[in-house]
SnoaL-like domain-containing protein
Amino acid sequence: MSTPTYVGPEPAASHREIANLIARYAELVDGGDFAGLGALLADATFTGSGSPVSGAGAIEEMFRGTLIVYGDGTPRTKHVTTNLIVELDGDTAAARSYVTVYQALPELPLQPIAVGRYHDRFAWDGTRWRFAERRVHIDLVGDVSRHLRAAAG
């Protein structure tokens, strides 16, 4: 009897799936879907400007408590993620990317309000990739007074 050979995730498909997870995060934030963010990051630890947060409920609550949401149910932002680098290592992966956050409101012309980097780790569960960690590093900050509750208060 031969020893089974490891068959892990296919590299090109893995790059695509990881890029889609990163894009899905932006889509959920910009859509004000904090429950969706909790589900997306359920197996991850999220570190932004505060203490690390883990678990779907805690991550959802952190976003609800941090971001200002407007009448349309969104924070009126667009997160644009660029310069994506994905490094695969068997059942784990790491990614680095840049993020620019834009915001516009009736009284606020469209403008970038923050620029930074994402440092992510992913785990393959045998069927799909999942976030294991997201660390957000903000390098440049503009007017976030209409985006972040702490900045507004």
Q: What stands out?
A: DSSP finds four helices and six strands in the chain.
